[in-house]
Amino acid sequence: MKKDEFTAPLKSAKGYGSAHEGADHWIKQKLTAVANIPLVLWFIWSIIGLQGSTHAEFTQWLAQPHNSILMILLIISVIYHAKLGSQVVVEDYIAHEGFKTVKLLAQKLFFFAVAIAGIFSVLKIAFTAGM
Amino acid sequence: MSETKKVQRPLSPHLQVYKLPLTALMSISHRITGTALMLGSILIIAFLVSAAYGETQYNFVMTMAGTLGGKIILFLWSAAVYYHMCNGIRHLFWDTGKYLEKDTAMRTNYVVLIFTVFFTALTWMYAAESFSFNM
Predict the structure, then answer these.
(1) Does the distance separating the beta carbons of B41 and A82 come in below 8 Å?
(2) Of A75, A131, B23, B33, which residue is 20 to 30 A from B116 by alpha carbon distance?
(3) Residues B71, B76, B77, CA angle at the centre, nearest 5°?
(4) Is residue B78 less than 8 Å (CB to CB) from chain A?
(5) Where are the domains of chain A?
(6) Architecture of B22-134 per CATH?
(7) How does pLDDT run along chain A (131 residues), one tens digit per residue?
(8) The pLDDT of residue B89
(9) Which one of B49, B59, B85 has the shortest CB-CB distance to A37?
(10) pLDDT profile of chain B (135 residues), mean per 10
(11) Greatest CA separation found in chain A?
């Protein structure tokens, strides 16, 4: 898919649209959306199998490299998708420019922190399970 | 001077007086489920953090998840995931410029809803079966 196909001629000429970011946001949202499909299905399927697991069973499962890697990819893709989605909701519904800017920045930092918390937890479990 | 005639024009669809068609209801539901899933993702990460802390914290979260309230949240989470996923796939088709006609959009509303119910039911049937098998 060429980026140009989603922008009007003038926007292509200037390189940006009215949001001053071109089709960048849209492409990232679609990319994470597609990535989320297999990752979320894997996650649901996995937690069904993990029902009633003890802490030791769960951490040993998560410590297996393919599970750790998929969980980290899931966190990155889902949280990035959430960040992009929440951004659009705020841009659409909050009219006050100052509050909008503060809320967008706060959300950006918040989702970044959430992703780091998740990734760190997975890594900690992956490196210490069974020890 | 020409007389201005009062013409009966359709009024602008104002939210309080306008009955939203199914397509519009499903559009706003995509946002509502998307926002709800942000909270769901935060809960999942909270679960991972609790597991990283240790057994006591992990057991606490598992006990909470096993209560009626916990199960209701899990069920709503799964239904929201499947709705957002099925409707999101429809959005990906729409992005190609296809299926955008009014009647096609109305028909695919039902496709999305049927798949959402189907996947949610399938998940919980599989979960119930796998749970009794584990016990």
Answers:
(1) yes
(2) A75
(3) 95
(4) yes
(5) 28-128
(6) Up-down Bundle (1.20)
(7) 455 566 666 656 666 666 667 688 999 999 999 999 999 999 999 999 999 899 999 999 999 999 999 999 999 999 999 999 999 999 999 999 999 999 999 999 999 999 999 999 999 999 998 76
(8) 97
(9) B85
(10) 72 76 95 97 97 96 94 96 98 94 94 98 93 64
(11) 60
Q: What residue spans of A1-131 are helical by DSSP H?
A: 9-14, 24-49, 55-63, 65-93, 97-128
Do B55 and A121 count as a contact with CB atoms less than 8 A apart? no
Q: Do B123 and A48 touch (CB under 8 A)?
A: yes
User: ipTM score of the complex?
Assistant: 0.87
Domain locations along chain B: 22-134
Query: If one looks up domain A28-128 in CATH, what number appears?
Result: 1.20.1300.10
- Using a CB-CB distance cutoff of 8 angstroms, which residues of chain A are in contact with residue B91? 33
> What is the per-residue pLDDT for B9?
76
Measured between CA atoms, how close is A114 to chain B, in angstroms?
7
Contacts of A35 in chain B (CB under 8 A): none
Judging contacts by C-beta atoms under 8 Å, the chain B residues touching residue A75 are 45
SS3 A130: coil
